[in-house]
Fold Exo-alpha-(1->6)-L-arabinopyranosidase.
Amino acid sequence: MTAPTPPTPPFRDPHLPFGKRVDDLLSRLTLEEKTAFLHQFAPAVERLGIAAFRTGQEALHGVAWMGPATVFPQAVGLGATWNEDLVRRVGEAVSKEARAMRARDERVGLNVWSPTVNLLRHPLWGRNEEGYSEDPKLTSAIATAYTRGLRGDHPTYWRTAPVLKHWLAHNNETDRDTSSASVRPRVLNEYDLRAFRETVEAGAVAGVMPAYNLVNGRPNHLSPYLGRHLRTWTEDDLLVCSDAGAPSNLVESEHYFDTHEEATAAALRAGVDSFTDHGTDSSKIVARVRGALERGLLTEADVDAAVRRQLSVRFRLGEFDPERDPHAVTADTATDFDTPAHRELAREAAEQAVVLLKNDGVLPLAPDTRIAVVGLLADECKLDWYSGTLIHRSTPLEGLYERFGAERVSFAEGVDRVRLRTRDGRFLHVLPADDTPAETRGAEGALDPALIAGRTDLPPLTADATGSELSLVDWGEGVLTLRAPDGRYLSVAEDGYVRASADQPGGWVVQETFRLEPHGDGHLLRHSGTGRPVHVAADGLKVAADDADAEVFELVVTERGEDTVTRAAAGADVVVVVAGNDPHINGRETEDRTTLRLPAHQERLLRAARTANPRTVLALVSAYPYAVDADVLPAVLWTAHGGQAAGTALARVLAGDVSPAGRLPQTWYADDADLPGLLDYDVIGSRQTYLYFEGAPLFPFGHGLSYASFGYADLSARVGDDAVRVSFTVTNTGQATADEVTQLYARAEEPSVPRPRRELLAHRRLTLAPGERAEVSFDVPLSAFAFWDVAHDRWRLEPGPYALLVGASSEDVRLSTTVTLAGDPAAPRPVREVGLDAADFDEQSGTEIVDRTKVAGDAVTPTGAGSGELLYRACDFGPGVTSVTLSVAGEGTAELSLEGGPSVASLSPQAPTAGPYDYVELAADFPADGVHDLHIRLRGSLRLAHVGFSG
């Protein structure tokens, strides 16, 4: 007799809603199994037929870290396209490659950690390359397009599940795991939350990743905004994945908790669902969760909430319905990888990302032009930390050879040629080596340490009477790279020997950078990765134990890079200087830049080229803006590192095959003096980004030139019940088919509070043939004109006139009109009834926002235990109050006055409170009536949380 077939469990029933299936599966898991799911690497549950799962697959501009893949332009380059349709297609291609690669390698994940939507507030941020724009509207538009491409169009099943990075207000690598961003409510709501919110509300986001830093004194992995804001923006279950190592940081670097059990419990309760910590070893996280459960810091319901959100994503990815998953790889789709369409899309994206910053008529280049292409990036196709491995590559030199012919293109890299002589008269020598490629992948599919630290199958450098001529590049800040005659970079492996073993600088710790430090009558060659100098041992060049064993070298320059540039430039009709950065050096994850200027080495090359030939074009290939002397150059272009097709794209733009139409996604400042402090996150108070900056930028937000010209006309604006309809026409008045990026901005003309000088409301990239005319219309919701009213803790549309500005950049306004909007008039703060939350100030000086408790709420304290002042405008004390009550912690004094006049009340705790979260109530007489501006001066380390009044 045949045994009856067991019934199909509900979680396997594709006809049931996902919610019911998740509930059923959750009910079948034991607490031990659910606890194991909380680590990034969730194990299989064989008794239920559930496979192992991991969160996280980097896919910022292509599938990263998993070997060969199509490499698209960096994220900031995609932002520079201002083209949502293009970016959506890029996301679609990346997700198709992720699926196809997973079919061959199960380590490729479908929960992709991208895109990065942190706003590019500060151009010295080391991870500038990862974001799209300094503007929340443009960032959310590009991010939404990319996530839609990653998600796919099927209404039920997702091709990949995108996770946005990094929640929240994260723009510094300096002390990134211990620094706190002070973000007042207006900045929080009008700026930092907006890019996340609009992307999440579009419905193609599976979750977010909290950032390493703290916001208002509280680690982002404990952010109360995850529940208060994020999870109210969608009905979907959103998965929150921790950043790598951040859960341990709560104890080990931030010292926010005394034990890991407390920290893990707090993060889980705040909304973190998956813990990325200790690599593939889940035992520590599992033990911490168990310890928290045993101590009563967590309940099983807390664990269930996190696991439910994880399972929701897995169901959406089709894991439990392989026969119904429209994205499951078949014989037809297994080849959705490095396809001709993807290669063409990479070229299209690279072309659309090129921004023409200045052109005095030297571009485009005529077909018979003799071109000298020079510079440290002229024959480079650089990758960054989140790139895949190149299958194809194109450098500017190769692109120009292809387009103009090798006979018309000359080349000078501009490196300095040097020899390093020891005190006994020998020179460093690179031995010939077999070029057999080293293994590049480890057991888990990550980059192999042998590749990161340099190959060990090659002989180390030695010293002899003749030595080898090395190519030296100074990337700024005294950081050098050295290359052997065969082009390989000197690198230090884990065994400490120096070999010519790397194709490019790279790795989490870059082992290919050095410093030459003056020492006596010579120099020490110090390896940056280990911090140790090198010396010539009997068995080869290696890092020394300490400075006492260091070799002292004489630097012998055999040829200066600018001399080679001068020779090449003098014989050409036009010089193209390709300058910029190496994405792994001086400005990258873990390292902020210190200046907007080009490294001195590259400035020397640029001066040499310009002196030899005034027809010098500067092509900047970089992950971030620079301050350059553009006024002395006839043409300047910029592109982010453009992926595999970067060189071809740049050559086609220089030749005029493509009219450039990229637009700057962030302000290019003229000088370092224009920048705020890196850790100053108050974009309003410090007048940051194009929204508030009152100086003269080098190039403004939205700027970009074309080989065509465009006329704007027929502006009309009609105010409806819910939106403003704005229409105008654009005509290509030039001689070439070209793209134009139309931009619509608004400005409140009579604001009651500081508002942006102008703010992007909408944009559109369109292609027009010569003489072609197009009508452009935007329906702008009235909510887009609102601001966050701190007096009433809500969005408010202020009635009055608003300027509508249409043009080709934030400063190139071609048409304007004014509309008058109805709204809610300003009302004084009802302080007599509800008091004041300290962080809801209108203006401040010398203060920062800190955490009121470890769970929620804000307080304000003077910076550096000094003194600061808070201003609250239009406080309505009604018919009168007689006393004030302050909720404070710490020690110090709070002094209150009206209209900036004499002190009305001064309050201090009798003794310091037991801790920063132990608040006491201080009361004093405070006679006031009517409406007044309230000033509160804080001294010492006093934390002010709330102010109450009574009559």
